[in-house]
Write a structure and sequence with these properties.
Elements lengths: L31 H12 L10 E5 L14 E4 L5 H11 L4 E7 H7 L1 H10 L4 E6 L34 H7 L4 E6 L3 H13 L4 E6 L22 E4 L6 E2 L5 E5 L5 E5 L19 H7 L9 E8 L5 H25 L9
Parallel strand pairs: 1-2, 1-3, 3-4, 4-6, 5-6, 7-11
Antiparallel strand pairs: 5-11, 8-9, 9-10
Helix pairs in contact: 1-6, 3-4, 5-7
Length: 344
């Protein structure tokens, strides 16, 4: 990724308008998708990449409309297949900046298989998962991230399913970059997008996105300005403290597990220091499980950012090596060996 000139603008002089299409933006009034779209369009000029070298691949759901509102190349794929489409594109066109936009139903239900394999392979794509803990487009059914007991049209007596933890899922798939942010916090969201774009490899960003029609207020305990009582802001190399005045902290208990304690009751050495670059994802995984649902102390920020060989680069080298090994004449002979025929 190219850098900027230090004031948020790139050498190409691009602005937010350069990335906004002429299509009328249509989500439900008050939907968190508006805030995410605005943040992405506002940030993209920093990349200093022209719109024709950017691609947004979307899945099915309310988030699927995102690609239509971007003045870039884009594709609206079928349910759950956005990571697979993006993988093929990354292999064929390594010169492009490829972003996947998906929802919790799209990515974690029918698309779960494609998601985890794109992450484990470290395909150079950036995956933005809009998590509103509900199926919004199809009018309010429970989703793979809905809490147990969730009453919806499809679960009138309460959901019996245990929900996915998207961050833990991505870490379990050995994703090299895993982060979480919030739809209405533009400053934090922009910083996370900035770090995801700079990462060389797959990047997974969960965005808490409010659905004010079918699941309003699901993230109210965490949303808000810095200092929110339940908002744990992760910063690499910094002790993990939070609260209105930093009065609470993440510590490791006698059993080695992470827990919450009062900062005044523990020594400074007891406070866990966040290490996003640790090759071992154990601590990041433990942070992902501090809260079962975003109703208690919940971490946001970059959980993990490590380096690993990139799938597209390895594949390109392998194909080039095979081509050189065969030589043009030998390869043609191989392709035409045995029973062959010509179709005219």
């Amino acid at each position: 990724m190219n850098g900027t000139n230090g004031n948020g603008a790139g050498a190409l002089g691009l602005t937010k308008k350069d990335f906004a299409s002429d299509q009328e933006t249509r989500w439900c009034p008050g939907c968190g998708d508006y805030a995410i779209l605005a943040a992405v369009q506002q940030y993209l000029p920093e990349l200093d990449i022209p719109p024709e070298r950017l691609v947004f691949v979307a899945g099915i759901g309310c988030s699927g409309r995102f690609a239509y509102y971007m003045n870039t190349y884009g594709m609206h794929g079928i349910h759950g297949r956005a990571p697979a489409l993006a993988t093929g594109l990354a292999l064929a066109r390594p010169d492009l900046s490829i972003w996947v936009v998906s929802g919790d139903g799209d990515s974690l239900s029918i698309g779960g298989n494609h998601l985890i394999h794109a992450l484990r392979r470290n395909v150079p794509i950036k995956i933005l998962l809009f998590n509103n803990q509900i199926y919004g487009l199809t009018k309010g059914q429970y989703s793979p991230t809905s809490e147990e007991g969730k009453v919806t049209k499809s679960t009138p007596f309460g959901s019996l399913d245990h929900p996915f933890n998207p961050i833990a899922l991505a870490l379990g798939a050995e994703a090299t970059f895993v982060a979480r942010t919030i739809d209405t916090d533009r400053e934090h969201q922009t910083q996370v997008l900035r770090e995801a774009a700079a990462h060389q490899g797959s990047a997974f960003v969960e965005i808490y996105q409010n659905c004010n029609v079918f699941n309003d207020g699901a993230f109210d305990a965490v949303r808000g300005k810095p200092g929110r009582a339940n908002q744990i802001r992760l910063e690499h190399g910094q002790p993990i403290r939070f609260g209105l005045e930093g009065e609470r902290a993440v510590v490791r208990d006698g059993g080695g597990r992470l827990s919450i304690a009062s900062d005044s009751e523990v020594g400074g050495d007891a406070v866990v220091v966040h290490d996003a670059r640790d090759p071992n994802p154990s601590q990041a995984f433990a942070l992902a499980h501090l809260a079962d649902q975003p109703t208690g102390p919940t971490p946001i920020g970059v959980f993990r950012a490590v380096e690993r060989p990139i799938f597209a680069e390895n594949m390109t080298r392998e194909l080039e090596s095979a081509r050189q090994g065969f030589g043009t004449g030998e390869l043609n002979a191989l392709l035409r060996s045995g029973d062959t025929w010509t179709v005219e």
